[in-house]
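Morning run. Coffee first, then this:
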Amino acid sequence: MNTEDRRIIKEIKRHRDLEANLPAYGNAYINSAYEYSLIRLVLNYYTMKEVFDEGGSVISDEPLNETIEQVHTIIYESLMKMDDAASIDYDDLIKRLDALRGELTDRMVVLTAYTDALQIYEYVLNRIEYGITGATYDVNVDSLSERLFKYIFNDNDKMVINSKVQMVTAQLPIRMTKSKFYDYLNDTLNIYNGSDVSSVDSFTDMMKSTAVLEKPEGYGKLYPEVYRLIEQLDNTDYKKLSLETYQAIMEQFSFTTVHLTDTVSNHLLLMEIVNALYSVLLAMPYESNDNASVAACTSMIAKLHDAYIARSEIPSSVDEGFELIEGVQEQLGEDILSFEAVLPDVLEDAEDDISWIMADELFKRLEMISKLMANSLFVDLKDSVEDSKTAGPEYIAGKRDELVEAFGKFFESHPKEVNRAVMGAVFSNMPVLFNSISEIKDYIEHSLSHCSNESELMACAKLLDEMMAEE
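And here it is:
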């Protein structure tokens, strides 16, 4: 960031000469955002081309392919027509990109639900393996308890300790009544007492999605090859599995999870492309960036586009172009962090000044670009008023009753093995389960010592040993 931009940011923080500093800030910010987004676009567009050339799940994923084709078209109608800027219909292009984001988000919600469901059944399948295959794994309960306790507390960082508690409790044998499980749920919800209602709602929704208590629209219809396995696992009697059936299920499970992982990765990569392109289009009517890296990126994107359409290899000139943008993204990233740091205050405190200089649309776009460049790929771009109401005891109790009812219905319709898997999945997402070190120690010892199922105990011990060995 140059000296002048730093000075402008300092002046804005002091609320000085906003009539002159706000437009200068907005112009500098949007130029940096445009250049940064172009680099993100070319990097991810290049990566998707490599994935596409390798074939596999992208070729067979018709919905994804349709989205990619629409992205190609939007790139052609915008970045490849910059010489005739007057013909570019930005509003239409942004509207179409927004629709693509919605489609990708909807599909990702279903894919996430499939992932959560398969993780639950993986938990079940792992714990019955030794009982079916006849394999063994040496377990010393006292030694394992001691090692787990040391593993959790060999770091002084409270956040690291809490993370380890979550990981360990997610793998330990679940040995508790439903009533005790609900007590843990209630204790966790009580942590949110006095916080925003939106935080409580987010936690409740996360609990429901983790246990797949509610099926999103498209569940069972999108990617039916994945759903068929989930349906099979949902209807399996795990107490009567033969070795042959178990091996067949595991083979199909392995194949499906690889396919699902690839599909999710492709959706994430495509959303990166869409978000970057979205930011580029928002900035294009306002940018005045003539840096060499901008010209290099637009040239590389055009060549990649043509290679996609012609189904040809990536031209060597694209690879050569990376030399021109090397190190630029990192520097721009630092600049944008500085611009973003003051944006919330500017939008809140300088609203009248922004209107006075007639820069409402520019700053509205900067706000959207800031969201698009954030860590959350699927962030909602719609204007929304954050619910600032405080969640009191009555609201917390209502959410607890809502979760208890939902879990109760699930537990009644599923076998013990699946119910325990759900409890383990929920524990892995609870921020705090215990109030003291002794409670953690007691829980570990109780879970291991009260597990009379040798197959489950051996499986848990193996998973926990592998977890500790990774540190």
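The chain is about 75% helix and 0% strand. Good start to the day.
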